[in-house]
Amino acid sequence: xxxxxxxxxxxxxxxxxxxxxxxxxxxxxxxxxxxxxxxxxxxxxxxxxxxxxxxxxxxxxxxxxxxxxxxxxxxxxxxxxxxxxxxxxxxxxxxxxxxxxxxxxxxxxxxxxxxxxxxxxxxxxxxxxxxxxxxxxxxxxxxxxxxxxxxxxxxxxxxxxxxxxxxxxxxxxxxxxxxxxxxxxxxxxxxxxxxxxxxxxxxxxxxxxxxxxxxxxxxxxxxxxxxxxxxxxxxxxxxxxxxxxxxxxxxxxxxxxxxxxxxxxxxxxxxxxxxxxxxxxxxxxxxxxxxxxxxxxxxxxxxxxxxxxxxxxxxxxxxxxxxxxxxxxxxxxxxxxxxxxxxxxxxxxxxxxxxxxxxxxxxxxxxxxxxxxxxxxxxxxxxxxxxxxxxxxxxxxxxxxxx
Amino acid sequence: xxxxxxxxxxxxxxxxxxxxxxxxxxxxxxxxxxxxxxxxxxxxxxxxxxxxxxxxxxxxxxxxxxxxxxxxxxxxxxxxxxxxxxxxxxxxxxxxxxxxxxxxxxxxxxxxxxxxxxxxxxxxxxxxxxxxxxxxxxxxxxxxxxxxxxxxxxxxxxxxxxxxxxxxxxxxxxxxxxxxxxxxxxxxxxxxxxxxxxxxxxxxxxxxxxxxxxxxxxxxxxxxxxxxxxxxxxxxxxxxxxxxxxxxxxxxxxxxxxxxxxxxxxxxxxxxxxxxxxxxxxxxxxxxxxxxxxxxxxxxxxxxxxxxxxxxxxxxxxxxxxxxxxxxxxxxxxxxxxxxxxxxxxxxxxxxxxxxxxxxxxxxxxxxxxxxxxxxxxxxxxxxxxxxxxxxxxxxxxxxxxx
Lengths: 403, 403
What we know:
Radius of gyration of chain A: 22 Å
Strand order of the largest sheet of chain A: 3-2-1-4-5
Oligomer: homodimer
Number of domains of chain A: 2
Number of strands of chain A: 11
Largest interface: A-B, 60 and 60 residues
Order of helices and strands of chain A: EHEHEHHEHEHEHEHEHEHHEEHH
Structural class of chain A: alpha/beta
């Protein structure tokens, strides 16, 4: 082993392929004879000095990570505050790093994790501790800026498209005497990429899903119901894909309409899917079914996208290369080099450009979603008309990463 | 074409492989130069004289049925009443059959469909119309008697086991700072076979699912909560698989507890999964997530069981053979000829033995579930202790058909 240790940690919601990134990190470091410690449960493991020595794991076990969903070392939902507010914690991290000779820190997560990695690198520089911090991208929501797409998204998108297509065939078969409307709730509290992925289930105007509701566009109940009714009349049935994060025009989440409590003060953990289903039943009198796949959509390794898996491994490998070169404060991102056929490469991007930013699903096409201008004030396409949604950018991104 | 036409129809909830049965029926009939008509939307298509001439479909299209979930010809939820009550409808069926020279009728469904096929065969015999009626098994609930298992169940069981296992890895990774309890709702209103299939996700005492709730055993909230709390304390997290059909001791469905309406009279289409999740949150104060896969579990052709597919095709092929031999009032059923390795064959069984019967998931092991004696009055195993559930019979049946 050479001098210095590499510390790897996972953060935020896990994906079908985040362990593939972990496996690639460990393999790349082993090839360079660098020891890898993994923090248990993200940054918390570093704060608690709860570290896993991956050098004790066999090559077969490390290879197996590529096929294992979830987060092998545990993840966390925990965000460090500013350097001023959480100074003692940042100092604690550097103390733990020093005790284990950690010279390279790889934080695998979304934009919060990019922020943590960035802050830590600044703290290290300020105190003269020799540390290279790298953010490694991951999120099923696909809401990181700069990168063409996020490892984890392609697999969740493929899961969504396949599941919507399969369920739609079921609905179509039953509609004559049974369910006429099917509501499919997808993840994505602030960005509609997974909702858009549901649109890949079909291609024709009357294919499912006939209605897609995005968090980026205010929910309009009357318009929604009219579209469902019209679709059932024309097609015989209707499939709705709805993002968990759709909001009313005043910004309130539709799912929070009841305040999360029933008349007796009991929690209602209904989600927006069953809520819309009840609305369709009450207002249109149609028989309705709904699904909330929840964690299934982000852990479905059995249905992972090949391209997504390749992305996940490539960013892990690149992260180790950048780290050992001392490229502090960067993230390996996916760059699209060809649209058709889809070709890509990995390049470093400054964490400053990525931390705390969010990329919504764009309403208009652009040659590169990473550099797309902000959406115009008014919708230029209507997400509720199947023929128009998702927009070319979202469609292309999804198709490319679902392969 | 020889004299006479074969009429095929699909009934009840569709499965990932019911179209594979349809394809096998059509291929077997073509090989015998028998024309196949398919009724659109089950028996309703026959009543309406809405029939599809499958001879106009290419061999490739028919082959494609084996890979297509849903019901290609449409299904229905429609049960004919007794011969006395619905006499005019039975007569209408025979008139339509006569107009199209239908000599063989294959009804692909559950025990209601077996009942319809049986009644129709009796009516035909009484009126002297030469008709051979065959029931063809299908149901994800696996609740038909006599047959070793039902085509459609194995794929839904595999979907459930895989999804529970994948989601459990997600929960385990997040439990330190996020979700500690995950509730997975499966289909099966009266029989717990799919709930038992969830148990295949793990093998050790602390593997997911640590709790399985069956419709066959009364729901006991206090016991349920105690088990969840104890599991979270010991393992750090807990996965619950719950059948949509669990009941209170007085027989009421737990899912119907709120009467399906909120305080404003709006429909609550929550399902039992979110209901249990809310109970865990309110009573134990634990962070909880839940999933209701709904139609996804029965349409997931992408994850179909190879054995299930073979069963589905074998019963379709056998149904045509039995029909052409004039074996009226039978159903091709799966017979297990070897436990390990799992081997099986198809044999005819009288519809009289199958129609209107239901096979619950047994509490005790028996050498052959098809001939299992009724469950004893008291539970001899506790479904809420992971180490004991599912019972050997259910486990073996599931493992065998998930392959």
